[in-house]
Each structure stands twice: as structure tokens, then as C-alpha cells.
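User: Can you write out an input/output pair for a complex, sequences first and structure second?

Assistant: Here is one pair. Inputs:
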Amino acid sequence: MAAPAASRSKGGRQGRGRAARRDRRIGAAVAGPAYITRRIPPYDILSEEALVRIEDTSDRILEEIGIRFQDDPRCLELWREAGADVTADLVRFPKGLVRHVLSTAPAIFTQHARNPERSVKFGGDHVVFVPSYGAPFVMDLDKGRRYGTIEDFRNFVKLAYASPWLHHSGGTVCEPTDVPVNKRHLDMVYSHIRYSDRAFLGSITAEDRAEDSIEMARLVFGAEFVERNCVVMGNVNCNSPLVWDAMATKSIRAYARANQGTVIAPFILGGAMGPVTTAGAVAQAHAEAMVGCAVSQLERPGAPTIYGNFLSSTQLRTGSPTFGTPEPAVGSLVVGQLCRRLNLPLRCSGSFTTSKLPDAQAMMESATSMHASVLSGANFAFHSAGFLDGLLSMSYEKFVMDSDYCGHMHAYLAGVPTDDNQLAFSALAEGGPGQHLFGSAHTLANYETAYWESDLSDSRSYEQWIEAGSEDAATRANRRWKQLLADYEAPPLDPGIDEALQDLMARRKASLADEWH
Amino acid sequence: MAAPAASRSKGGRQGRGRAARRDRRIGAAVAGPAYITRRIPPYDILSEEALVRIEDTSDRILEEIGIRFQDDPRCLELWREAGADVTADLVRFPKGLVRHVLSTAPAIFTQHARNPERSVKFGGDHVVFVPSYGAPFVMDLDKGRRYGTIEDFRNFVKLAYASPWLHHSGGTVCEPTDVPVNKRHLDMVYSHIRYSDRAFLGSITAEDRAEDSIEMARLVFGAEFVERNCVVMGNVNCNSPLVWDAMATKSIRAYARANQGTVIAPFILGGAMGPVTTAGAVAQAHAEAMVGCAVSQLERPGAPTIYGNFLSSTQLRTGSPTFGTPEPAVGSLVVGQLCRRLNLPLRCSGSFTTSKLPDAQAMMESATSMHASVLSGANFAFHSAGFLDGLLSMSYEKFVMDSDYCGHMHAYLAGVPTDDNQLAFSALAEGGPGQHLFGSAHTLANYETAYWESDLSDSRSYEQWIEAGSEDAATRANRRWKQLLADYEAPPLDPGIDEALQDLMARRKASLADEWH
């Protein structure tokens, strides 16, 4: 159950040649690596001394202010047993306790996909790009913004499956608002299984929905395999500042209890759910994330967990949240350093933007944010594709733009190899000064894999571009997602498994009255 | 003649408060720092061992292949005197010779502006953002693409002057094609002096034009001051691969002779003017740049010189150049490391793109490229604003988008301070868990300077944005450059100096017959 596609990928360079591009264009076969193994180091932005100041602040927050755990008595009991100071629902942590609890969490783990060639590794030098998560609206250039439906949900699962530059099917790629709130988790998990063969996230909106998600995974992978391996994960947010509510902790515990993964992500809008200063917001998030990850270890030591973060800023004149801005970007780099010192897998940043269109602002902000993700050493680059309007919308056009940028980032993460062929002394020696290299032996031997090529960017001459209709990037993206959906072919699924899943869904749905909020 | 505006700037954070924004909007007063002093380290992407492999390859190129110097016998003579092996116009360099010649070049120097508060420092932790350079066309959303004119040239000088996030007026911000080729350098230099008070670049298209540029600078600063201080620089490209032609070397020598600055930039389209592999293109560029900088030192030891680079890639299916792609970005990070080992100021990267419109592609590619610039440790971030269509066009809309992104980068380069106020323990202690921080004492004390705010990005709610006309970024940028030009007020210029400049121009123009190519 290793990841052979990844080992073939040579650091993400697989699928960069002509043959791979041709395969991609056929549509059905997705010829990207299972995940990336980075060949460039993370970027350490802060000094040791500065990091220690932040860590000390997080420790003071935990010891002196504490974290409130709402409506989950078992969680309080677990903390009391671990040695924390519990007063009503407020937990204070003696220095070193949380780090001690975290010491059982794995530094690297595999999340298995139903197609074993698409299993992903989290931690270390591994990088996994995943679609955006949680938007209530969807948006495209034809129909504008509207509430997401299960059809939209399926479309985004299909678009993610069709991209060679995404590695994971994600979770709530958009809210399927046409399905009752208490039943939509079933349709979401089913759609990930049915329309993709990649790893996916389950529900976290209630403990029983988390358990349903895990149960569906058992039907796919077998109960015994699931007991020993991570096949599904839940992504939970802290109720910042400094509150973990029952929805989150009960989901964390449900996934951990089943030996499944958790992704722990404080979501701090600076000036609202945390301090307006970056170091302060990071110190708070560090405290919150450590504690969230630790809950998984209290429930089941050794359960896989990912330390996450979702920093943003606020336009303080208006109170509007802002995304893809510089302060959260540099803050994310600090988060990466803090996480490496814990030796945990990292979720960080993504293709953030506050723009309402797939325009210049959108990709400027997203590129900033994706750079922060990649440079921070993130293992799980959350919200990598589709994020628009401050996460209120999932955009069809931006989804394909962002996936394309993930391809760009594959080449970036491959770094600069310096073997003799790459150093190319012979290429210059062949012709000498003044001789262009178009036809040189070195160029001919290397040009097919030399540069990553975008399927979306236009690099033709101005005249060719005018002649072809002078389209902008958004128009090309509009055409591309429609083509990808038209070309989509579902990966095979064992009919027995499909039937069992549909049966479980039908039974669960029949047992519940529809709830719409 | 220090830079008081910069020392007031606290790492680029000046001008981020409300008052500064109000000032900016008034138009005339430009309230940005003179330049940035970075508070984040450069990003070291390669190991020592890999860097040495590249350096060794550059040394082999210099020693075994050599560099051709065309039509500049004095330059060959200087190299012969320095100990190089000169055969006809081919020069080979014994190992260590070029580095030895470079040892007299200053690690840090000041280029003086006619407004002393706007003088800039190159080298060390200093960063200078400068408009794009050399496009024959200009472009805006109203009139599309057309050849640049002197009016366009003046407009871009004015727009650069109006931006608080640019630090330098640049050189050939566009080609003023309505002025004869052999006279336009006079109008260009005059426009920089007349319509801005920032530092600028002079002509390099012929030795006498370089000398005219320096002579005009003498009229502004006084001949004695110019003999002792850098007030003008020439930016030259290598005729890659491995050729320095007379236009370049005679200009380098003209600027160096007058103790003025040179910016030395190999321009390598991978697969054409250099190897198709990144390590190879970097090794070649390193050899070419070291030699170009060394020419300035042969002419006058101690003359200021900037080690530059302009990497791009090629779409090898079509032969089209591509800009803002991942391989040149990571290559630029390597260039930064190589330059730091020479202890020279660095010019690197900019807001590159191959897009023909100020759209999502344009800013995605530019953000990649500007990140490479900033992370490489570039001191002179060339082509920071306006670059469109692979440098064929200077775009009015993209100019204001890019300047705005330079503001974004000011905040990025300010990093993450970790003093007690920034760590904000008191902010969380004040309210405790679950208490939002909008009204906290810490938020109130810090919100004015907390986040950099774009003048161009829209972060309003979807409903507000729809109500305001649902404009995209390009439409906002179109309105903004027109407003900036309407609000423009020229900085004062001593009438005696103005008259002397006009007199020199008139005399020079009268002495030459118009040449149009």
C-alpha cells in the first residue's frame, strides 16, 4: 500500500513531458504524481530567539489563561487525568504538559486512497494539494453566485480528480445546500468515493456524522484495514479565541478513537478572534493547535493528527476579513517553523483571496498565499483550489486557475538539481560564445522535460493571441472547466461496495427527519 | 545626504496608517519610504555543496570556453593587463582572476536623488523597487496596444512618482518612439529629472548617449559632487551566450569612468541564449555577470556596480519566451545566493508575465516573480511595475496593480516583530477565552498600523461589491491611473537647472541629424 506513483514522480517532475500532457488532454487518465516530495528546504523567517519568545507566549497562554472546553465532559476528564488544572470548563496546562501529550503523535503517516497508487503521505518533505473547503456558495462566469448544490459538489470532486496537480479530494468542497443538513454528509462522502479514487475528508459537524463517515470508509476499505490504517480524516476549527467546543472535540475524539486522522486548524481573523498583531495571533494559534492535536492523543495515543493554521487579516476600517494579504503570509512562515519544532505534519495556507471574481486581485492574493504555504513547509496545502470571496464562494474558473498554479508549484518544489546534465557545461562548450542553443544536443536531449507548461496560461505572441480572440485568463478557465467536466470518466468502483454504500445511506436517511439548519 | 525618509520608515512600515493613506489620496505628497530595509532573511534554496558545483561550472566556462568582447579594443587591453588570456576578441580567465578584479567593487553604495530624502541605498539589506524597463509598446484598456511616445514616458514617470511603494524612477520606462532614436535619451533623462525627484537610470545605447546622461546629471548635482558620488546608473544586458558587445562594454566603461553606477544583467531565454536547464543557465549568467561587473572595476576600481540577472524560460513547443514561470523563480533564488558570496548588490527578477492583459495570469505570474525577487535578497527589484506581454508592453493598469503589490511586499519584508506588544499576551489575558478582540485595548492601540491596506484590492462584502458596480481589478486599476495622473503635481525644480538642461538638450539635438532606427 505504498505510493508507487509518488516514487515514480522524482519530486513532482512526473507528467511534465509531452506524453503526459497528451494523456492529460485525453481527460480520463490523470497523470500526476500521488503527492509531492519537496526538493527545496522550508524558509526559516525567524531566528531561534524570536521563535522561543513566541513559544514562551503560547506556554503562558496555556498555563495562565487556559482554554475553555464547552459541553464535552469526557474531554475535561481526559485532561484532568493527564495532569491539567481543570476548573469548571476551563483547562490550564502546566508547562510542558501539552508537548508531552503530543509526543505520541506520528511525525509522518499515510492516508490511504481507495486506489493505492493515490495514497498520500503527510509529514516530512511530503506535500499534498487539496481543493478548498467549506464555501456555502458556488460561482461561475455564466451564472454568477448561487448556493451550492450536490451537483456542484460532484462537479468539484470531478474537477479535482481531473487535475494532475491536486492529490486529495478534500472534504466539503462546497455546501450541498439542496440536501438536508443532517444528511448531506452521507452524499458528500459518497461523492468523494464514487467520483474520485483519491483520499478524502469526512464530516465533523456532529459526532454521529463523523462516525457515519468512518463507517462508510469501512465499507470501502474493510473494518480491519481501517482499524490499523488512516483512510479518512476530519478537519476541525478551533472556536477562537481559546475555546474548543463539543462539535470539534467530539469529532476529534471520534476520528482518533477509530485510529483515523484529524486536521486541527485555528481560524483567526486578526483583531476579532485573536490579536491584531501577527506574532500574537501566531502565539495564540500555536496554543490552540497544540491543544487540539493533543486531544486526539488523549483519546488514542498514536492516532494521526495534523497541526494546522488558517491566518487571515481584517480591514479594520470596515471589519471585513481579508485573505491573501502579506501579514498572514509571513505569519504562516512562522507557523511552519513552530510546527517543525513539534515534529508534526503541517496544514497551512492555500489559495486565499477576498476578490469576488477570478481576476488579477484573486490570483495576486492566491499566489502570495500559496507561496506562504509552500515555503512554510506545509504538508497539507489546504484550500489549494477554488477559494474565492473570502471562502464564501467556490469558483469554477478559479478552481482550474488554482489547479494550474499547483502545477506551477510542483515545478517550484522540484528546486534546482545540479547534476552534470543540469549544469550543462557541454551545452555551452558545443557552440561557444555567441551560438544560440535551440538546436544544441543538450537542448534536444532536455527540452521535453525542461520547463513546466501551463495548460491555461497564454504565452503566444500578441498577434497570435489577437487572432485567437484575445481572451483573458478567466474566459479560458471558463472553457476549460466545462471541457474537463465533459471529458470526465469516473474511476471504476466495485459494484458490491457501491451497493453497500448506497444501502447504508438509504438506511441512515430513512432513520432521520430532514433538518434544514 | 543620508536617507532620513528611510530611517523614519521602520522597515517599510511608514505610511501604513490612516494619515498616510489620506496623504496619498491627496495625490501630490508621496508618503512612502525612500527604500526598504528588509527585516526578513533571504531564502537559501541550495546547499553549500550545490552552490560550489555551480560556481565551479562558471569558473570552467570562464577558463575553458571564455567570453567574446566585440569591437572594444580598449576592453581587451584592460583584460590583457589584468592577466587574462586574450586571443583575438576571445578572453579566457585564469581561475580566481575575475573574483580578484571584483574585490574592489563596493558591497553597498548610495545613489543620490535630486531630493536627498529620496536617495537610495543598494546592497546589504536594502531593497529598491523600480518600474519596468524597455518596452516598445504601451497598453491600456481604453486604447489597447500601440507604440510608446514621450507622453507615455512622462506618464509612467509621473505614475512612479505618485506611488509610495516605488523608490526609483527607472530608465527606459517605455520607448518614446516619436522621438528620434539618437535624441530620445535626452528627453528620457530630462523627464526623469523634471517629473520626478527620485534617482534614475541614464542611456546605454551608445557611448556618447551614456556621456550625455552623465553630463545632464552634472547640471543637476554639480560636477564635483558627481565625481565623488553616484547619481546616475546605466543598465546593460550581456549579449548571451558569452558575448559582451561594444555597446555594453563602452557604456559600462563610460559610467565607471565617471564614478557612476552600472547594472549588469545577463538576459537568458533558456534553450536559446543559454542552456535549457536552470542550473546551467544560472552558471552561465553567473560567469557573464561577474565579467560585466569586473569591466567596471578594470575601468575604475571602486566604481559602483550591481550584479544582475534576468532569467526566463521558453515554451519549447513554439519557441515563445515565457515569464513568471517556476524555473526562473527558483533559479533567481540561486542567483541571490551566488551574489551574496561575491558581496555585491543584486538586481533580480520583477513583475514578469507573458499575459497580454492585466488579468489573473498576469498577476499570478508577477506575484511568483516578485516573490523570487524579494526572497532572493534582490537589492534592485528591476521591472517591479508595468511589465506586460513578455516586456513588449508597458501597461498602465498593470503599473498600478504592480505598485500596489510592491506595497504588499513592503509589509512582507517587514517580517514578524516579536516584541511584547506584538506578542500581545495582554490582549488575550484581558478578555480570556471566547471574548472577541474588536474592542480590546490592544486592538485599539494597534489597529491603525496593524495591516497593510491595498488601495486597489476590493475586500468589501459581495453585496457591497455588487451594489458598487461589481468591478474587476483591471477596471479599478484603469480608473486609478487616470486619477493619479489627474492629481499629479510636479516636484519643484530649480529654474536655473531646468534652463541649463533644456539648453544642453537643444544644443545636442541641433548638432545631430534625426535617426529613426
